[in-house]
Specification:
By secondary structure, this protein is of the alpha/beta class. The chain is 35% helix and 29% strand. Strands 4-8-7-5-9 form a five-stranded mixed β-barrel, surrounded by four helices. It has a three-stranded antiparallel sheet with strand order 1-2-3. Helix 2 packs parallel to helix 6 and helix 4 crosses helix 8.
Length: 219
């Protein structure tokens, strides 16, 4: 589940076999096809906790989806965590009130759910892919007036920042489903390094491959 509908289309067009567009409500594309002989659905979440909160909840509840692997980009908070590195999210930490308002889950952390996290680590090892495990910050805002690492991210030693994992994990916890978040570092915030727009799709392919390989191993 990427955030960008066009990234879902890219995966369907370039990686899945026999993809079929199964939904395009609000121009959020969902495709079902096969990957190495296994049926897989790829669809977008939009940006932020409210958006992925709606899409993932309905997938879990209305369509009986058992596992969602979010794939996305993140900004590294540390200069030693560089561009193109992969991060498998342990805890999503956030100032968001999503989990408390929706389900009464208190606290500012939400762990991955089910066995998807472990399967991603095992799959990465079998493919000889380097991957980090650690906490990430799911921020409700993209632009801030104050520079530096926000307090919640400092508190939980977050490696990087994105915007969706906290809500995805909360939904999965409430509904008893599996959920993981796999990220590619696209920006290094302290050094202002970033992946160019032209290189972004090519650079995300290792993450996409790892997510798909892991998804089919969950069946």
């Amino acid at each position: 589940m990427p955030g960008d509908p066009l990234r879902a289309k890219f995966i369907a067009d370039n990686i899945l076999q026999n993809p079929e567009l199964v939904s395009h409500t609000r121009n959020v594309f969902f495709y079902t096809g096969t990957y190495n002989g296994h049926q897989v659905t790829v669809g977008a979440s939009g940006m932020g906790c409210p958006s992925i909160g709606i899409y993932s909840f309905e997938l879990f509840k209305e369509y009986d989806v058992q596992c969602i692997i979010r794939i996305g980009t993140c900004g590294s908070y540390h200069p030693h965590i560089g561009l193109y590195e992969l991060i498998n999210t342990d805890l999503a930490c956030s100032e968001s009130t999503f989990a408390a308002c929706a389900f009464g889950f208190e606290g500012d952390t939400m762990p991955h759910q089910g066995n998807a996290y472990d399967i991603i680590n095992q799959t990465a090892a079998s493919l000889q892919m380097n991957i980090r495990q650690g906490n990430i910050h799911s921020s409700d805002v993209f632009y801030r007036k104050d520079p530096g690492i926000p307090p919640v991210a400092e508190k939980h030693q977050c490696l990087a920042v994105e915007m969706e994992a906290f809500a995805l994990f909360a939904n999965a916890r409430h509904l008893g489903r599996a959920a993981a978040t796999l990220l590619t570092v696209s920006d290094v915030i302290p050094t202002r390094e970033e992946i160019s727009p032209d290189a972004r799709e090519r650079s995300l392919k290792p993450m996409i491959t790892l997510a798909l390989e892991s998804a089919v191993r969950m069946k």
